[in-house]
Design goal:
Number of helices: 16
Distance between the termini: 41 Å
Number of domains: 2
Structural class: alpha/beta
Order of helices and strands: EHEHHEEHEHHEHEHEHHHHEHEEHEHEH
CATH architecture of the largest domain: 3-Layer(aba) Sandwich
CATH class of the largest domain: Alpha Beta
Number of strands: 13
Largest sheet: 8 strands, mixed
CATH topology of the largest domain: Rossmann fold
Shape: elongated
Helix content: 25-40%
Strand order of the largest sheet: 3-2-1-4-5-6-7-8
Bound molecules: ligand SAJ
Radius of gyration: 24 Å
Oligomer: single chain
Strand content: 5-15%
């Protein structure tokens, strides 16, 4: 088979744009495609529209050298990657319309020998459905879900599994699963990703690869749901959940994640629904985890209410609005939801601080919430609610919190800061035992 020299990436978002960059860096000619004209114009100027460490400098260099060009319509290429959003509908069913729209726009430029890879997180069966749509639109070409090894267009599924904030390194280092609709499709996709992936590439079916991606995020959601359930148990028993988890994690085969104000972002809080929607009768644990994690903002509000003094109007400082630490992304953030729920009360003043943002997100505007810096908020507050464990908040002098009532949803001040259970009594063989990592918490 001929060498893959040109790649087109449809969708230049949080995954598509870094993927363009990494392919171009590995020596291929890359065409980035997006329906958003502003995004295309920006990329062609060497600028970026997302926040991701080191990506801006890289894009600028690649555009200057001509190895990356952006377009509003798919271009002819040896390989086409579809990396568009797959959101959920209000009833929690998956919306694959962007994948199908991408396939429709791609169909006219496809030619025999091309490879099409779906990367978007997708419900099981989407790759096959996409191939089916392409076959309808291009009856002159043979597709692998019908013609198997005799197909002349190759189709595969290969999900990304990178962590926002570490995308450029994780794209290269992480292992990948590759699910071709035929053996040749998988082999061609392996040839494509070998251009930059240093991790291992594992071949499986398209459907298994689709479920693997969903399983990874559903597993994390269930683990966090377990931690949040434990938090409720410990509160009921008057115990410290952080200490209980910290000590349980000293067991060599236990690794419980951290409780918090809920699960945010566009992956972990969404992907389990793709499995639940397909198998509602067989997903009790996943459904329970979703319920527990979605209810967390309400339990944080209940914790705040327990500290309120009904005799006077009080000021609440809410620290952190992003969906996880050390980033600016506030989309689907449980911290934003906590502040929104609190702002429904008329008897309190709310000060919100987010060191990575310049203003409140739109959803919190017009609700009487004052946006300020963390120290000012703490100074004026009766109750301080820590919602995100930003490094920034770890540097706050404990003196500033001395007379404040605290709701520390991340255990940053009340546990992690110097109160870990490291008062070990060395066992006889402890010198020989490898020290295991007890925490693999929010990155
Ligand atoms: N969270 C907790 N407790 C924890 C860990 C996380 O409450 O112990 C919360 C975070 O605060 C955040 C949410 O969960 O609100 C999700 O954050 P995350 O860091 O766990 O994950 P994401 O959404 O940034 O990225 C995930 C990753 N998936 C897994 O770790 C299995 C990433 O590798 C995927 O590529 C990404 O989803 C994706 O695109 O699917």
């Amino acid at each position: 088979m001929s060498k893959i020299g040109t790649v087109s990436v449809i969708g230049m978002g949080y995954i598509g744009l870094p993927t363009c960059a990494i392919f171009a860096k590995s020596g291929l000619d890359v065409f980035g495609v997006d329906v958003n004209e502003d995004v295309v114009a920006k990329v062609n100027r060497g600028e970026i529209h997302i926040v991701e460490p080191e990506l801006d400098g890289l894009i600028q260099k690649l555009v200057e050298t001509g190895s990356l060009k952006a377009f509003t319509k798919p271009q002819q290429a040896d390989a086409h990657i579809v990396a568009v959003p797959t959101p959920i509908m209000p009833d929690h069913s998956p919306d694959v319309s962007y994948v199908m729209a991408a396939a429709r726009s791609l169909a006219p430029v496809l030619k025999a020998g091309d490879l099409v890879v779906l990367e978007s997180t997708s419900p099981v069966g989407t790759t096959r459905a996409m191939s089916d749509l392409l076959a309808d639109l291009r009856p002159d070409l043979k597709f692998p879900h019908i013609y198997g090894e005799d197909a002349d267009v190759l189709v595969a599924y290969s999900p990304e599994r990178v962590l926002p904030g570490k995308v450029l390194t994780e794209l290269v280092d992480n292992d990948r699963s590759i699910g071709g609709l035929s053996k040749r499709s998988s082999e061609r996709a392996v040839a494509l990703y070998t251009n930059f992936v240093a991790g291992d590439l594992y071949i499986t079916s398209a459907e298994s690869a689709e479920l693997v991606k969903l399983t990874e995020n559903a597993f994390r959601d269930v683990n966090i749901g377990f931690a949040n359930e434990l938090a409720a148990v410990c509160q009921h028993m008057g115990l410290n959940v952080w200490e209980v988890i910290d000590l349980a994690n000293k067991h060599p085969r236990v690794n419980i994640l951290s409780p918090g104000p809920g699960v945010g972002g566009h992956c972990i809080a969404v992907d389990p629904y793709f499995i639940i929607d397909a198998a509602p009768e067989s997903t009790d644990i996943m459904q329970a985890a979703r319920r527990i994690n979605s209810d967390r903002p309400h339990s944080v509000v209940r914790d705040v209410e327990l500290l309120l003094d009904p005799s006077r109007r009080q000021t609440i400082a809410c620290l952190g609005l992003s969906f996880k630490p050390n980033i600016d992304d506030m989309r689907e953030s449980p911290a934003v939801e906590v502040v929104r729920l609190l702002s429904e009360r008329r008897d309190i003043e709310i000060l919100a601080a987010e060191p990575h943002a310049k203003a409140l997100p739109k959803s919190l505007e017009g609700r009487g919430i004052v946006f300020t810096d963390a120290l000012t908020a703490i100074d004026k507050a009766d109750i301080v609610v820590l919602l995100v464990d930003h490094r920034h908040f770890n540097l706050i002098d404990p003196e500033a919190l001395k007379d404040k009532k605290l709701v520390d949803t991340r255990g940053l001040w009340t546990w992690r800061k110097g109160r870990r259970t490291d008062a070990r009594i060395e066992g006889r063989n402890s010198m020989n035992r490898p020290r295991r990592r007890s925490t693999d918490k929010a990155a």
